[in-house]
Design a protein that fits this description.
Rossmann fold, Dna Ligase, domain 1, 3 domains, D-amino Acid Aminotransferase, Chain A, domain 1, 6-stranded antiparallel β-sheet, single chain, alpha+beta
């Protein structure tokens, strides 16, 4: 479960981390009132569960209450990476001297956590990490030991952070542990002109499996906000919307993840993660294809199925059913292998739909899908 920024900041404040005064609203008129209460000037920030808000125009500094109202009116209703802004947060501006980056994230490969920190925080942290990886410290954290004052001091030194950040590093770890989080990120964590360490932003992802004991969030998994993810959830599908153009459908999380990597390796971007499961029926296949094709960003769909429990002819039947029901205008590349693969290919050959292309290998299917997607 991803939290909104204002919710993450509430957690930070509850654990003794300094955050600027702020309030949220869905009303431009109310934004004027809040800005006046904050002292006149205010930072108006879109509240959506995605990054890149600043570059998309979802963050603005208002010089006075009238400006805050105008900026709130502009930002409310804005689309940021498929997320419609329904709420803005108005925060008291801070006189920034330095910006830092800090995060704790679950490292599934090691079964531990990874602390990531840099003395060069801000909106360009991704570019810093890509172009100058030495500027970003990555330190494994043993869950049994945690982030002690001593280990936080070592992390600060490795990242080039001032010693005054050590206490905040420890408290952010407490947020991770006590709130059952998988990710805690602050970008930027700043030092003000007065020398205070303040969290200006916050991103927190909670472990859905632990929500039953996090009663402040209602104790249950929230419904997806993205309309496509919500539609997939209603059909019992494991679907995650991504930012690319190649829709990906597969059976089994491992196969789907591998397919995403191969598509990216061919120079295209996956548009989603959709796992139809190990025993998917023709109806499940049809439902999945309908969801993926409903994404306007998708220019090509790649179906990669290895038949085990799932019979490839049932998958092919589902594709044919979806072709008749959805009437796609985008090409599909289908790779069937394993249980009843020859029969499944024959089903698709018999349908002879002009938009359906078959491939015999995953790499070949990804290459063809990438080519069709970029040509669209």
């Amino acid at each position: 479960m991803d939290l909104y920024e204002h919710q993450a900041r509430e957690l930070f404040a509850a654990h003794g981390i300094v955050v600027p005064r702020a309030e949220i609203t869905d009303s431009p008129e109310r934004a004027r009132v809040i800005a006046r209460r904050l002292g006149g000037r205010a930072v108006v920030k879109a509240q959506v569960k995605t990054g890149g808000r600043g570059k998309a125009g979802g963050v603005a500094l208002a010089a006075d209450p009238a400006g805050a109202e105008a900026e709130a009116r502009r930002i409310l209703g804005m689309d940021i990476k498929g997320h419609t802004v329904g709420t803005v947060m108005l925060a008291q501006p801070v006189d920034i001297e330095s910006e830092f980056y800090v995060s704790y994230v679950l490292d599934r490969a090691t079964g531990g956590f990874l602390a990531v920190a840099s003395a060069e925080g801000g909106t360009e942290i991704e570019e810093v990490a890509a172009l100058r990886p030495d500027a970003v410290a990555r330190v494994p954290v043993d869950p049994a030991e945690g982030m002690t004052t001593a280990s936080a001091a070592r992390l600060a030194q490795a990242a080039g952070l001032p010693p005054t950040t050590v206490d905040v590093l420890v408290r952010l770890w407490e947020v991770l542990v006590r709130e059952d989080a998988l990710l805690v990120e602050v970008n930027p964590l700043v030092r003000t002109a007065r020398g205070d360490i303040v969290a200006l932003d916050g991103k927190v992802t909670l472990d859905d499996n632990a929500l039953f004991r996090q009663t402040r969030w209602g104790g249950e998994r929230p419904a997806p906000e993205d309309p496509l993810e919500a539609a997939a959830a209603r059909k019992g599908l494991h679907y995650v919307k991504l930012d690319g153009e190649v829709g990906v459908i597969g059976n089994g999380a491992g196969l789907v993840m591998s397919t995403l990597d191969v598509v990216a390796g061919r120079g295209a971007r996956p548009a989603d993660f959709l796992d139809i499961g190990g025993g998917a029926s023709a109806q499940v296949m049809a439902d999945g294809l309908a969801v993926v094709l409903a994404d306007p960003a998708v220019t090509c769909v790649l179906v990669n199925v290895f038949g085990g429990i799932t019979a490839c002819d049932a998958v092919a039947d589902g594709i044919v059913r979806a072709l008749d029901a959805v009437r796609p205008t985008k090409p599909l590349v289908v790779r069937l292998d394993g249980n009843n693969a020859a029969r499944g290919r024959a089903v698709l050959d018999a349908r002879a739909h002009p938009l359906v292309h078959q491939a015999t290998t995953m790499d070949g299917a990804a290459a063809q899908a990438a080519r069709l997607a970029t040509a669209a």
